[in-house]
Specification:
Elements lengths: L7 H27 L2 E2 L2 E6 L2 E2 L3 E2 L11 H12 L3 E6 L5 H6 L5 E7 L2 H4 L3 E15 L15 E5 L4 H14 L6 E5 L2 H9 L5 E5 H10 L4 E17 L5 H15 L1 H8 L15
Parallel strand pairs: 2-5, 2-6, 8-9, 8-10
Antiparallel strand pairs: 1-2, 3-4, 6-11, 7-10, 7-11
Helix pairs in contact: 2-8
Length: 279
């Protein structure tokens, strides 16, 4: 069969169409390789109450905002999709991941050896633990000053162990223990301090700084534990999903997008300069 000759312009135009088409499907191919997208959607479990990482800016809002939200949204965009957030209590986030109600957990959650026994994680952000008290409180300057006082803690967090270690130290010193009370949310914990039901809480410097900025003159940080702890994005074990997640985070780092997000939320520029291994 005779085929008429194709002009150079037509060949170039056809080549452009092919390149454009390949470029359009490339992100979806990367998403398929990650194994974390479902019909173009990345399902993410989060507590939704850990500013500035992830929270609702106003009562009644349906859309989450925050640094961690921006990071995960950017990852989903790299993979050619969007995000859907499954909001729940902190203690139920990893079990929800295990039950496949979501495919990632991003909720300011610490990377610990205990959690890594059942789940995988990619460390990506470092923060310090601090003690927060009411601004007028001039007596509670260190954790040992909490002897006999109420210490409010968010349930299911690593701060419960910090509080237990404090009471062990107080007992060794022959002092009365702190009265540890747990609450389901970070905002609930802060409320106990503001109304005078608790003397202090233990939280991250990121959250503390956000709360202080939100309520100037009402809260303070009298004590910084100083040991940096690492947040991670959690996922189920197996396959190449972890490698795909590491690659996505590294892309945000090298492109400068991660730095821009840190600046947007007034977070330290070095906060994401961490190794992505869990060894």
């Amino acid at each position: 069969m005779f085929h008429p000759p194709v002009s150079t312009a037509a060949r170039l135009a056809l080549g452009g169409i092919i390149v454009t088409a390949l470029s359009a499907v490339a992100p979806m191919a990367q998403a398929a390789d990650s194994g974390l997208m479902r019909d173009g959607v990345l399902n993410v479990c989060t507590g939704g109450d850990f500013p500035p990482m992830q929270y609702y800016a106003n009562p009644g809002d349906e859309k989450l905002v925050g640094f961690e939200v921006d990071v995960v949204d950017a990852i989903a965009k790299q993979w050619g999709g969007t995000t859907k957030y499954v909001v729940g209590d902190f203690k139920g986030l990893l079990p929800s991941l295990g039950a496949e109600r979501c495919d990632l957990v991003a909720s300011g959650i610490m990377v610990t050896k205990e959690r890594l026994k059942a789940y995988d994680a990619v460390p990506y952000f470092v923060s310090n633990v601090v003690m927060v008290t009411a601004a007028p409180d001039s007596e509670t300057k260190s954790p040992l000053d909490l002897s006999g006082k109420v210490l409010a803690i968010e349930a299911g967090t690593t701060y419960e162990k910090t509080a237990a270690d404090l009471n062990a130290e107080l007992a060794k010193a022959g002092k009365a223990p702190a009265q540890i009370q747990t609450y389901p949310s970070a905002s609930g914990v802060i409320e106990q301090i503001l109304v005078g039901r608790a003397a202090a809480t233990i939280t991250q410097d990121t959250t503390a700084a956000f709360r202080i900025k939100q309520m100037p003159g009402r809260l303070q940080i009298p004590y910084n534990y100083g040991d940096g702890e690492t947040y991670g994005i959690y996922l189920r074990k197996g396959g190449d999903n972890r490698a795909a997640l590491v690659k996505a985070i590294e892309t945000l780092q090298t492109s400068g997008e991660m730095k821009a997000l840190l600046q947007k939320w007034n977070l330290p520029e070095t906060a994401t300069d961490v190794k992505h291994t869990t060894d």
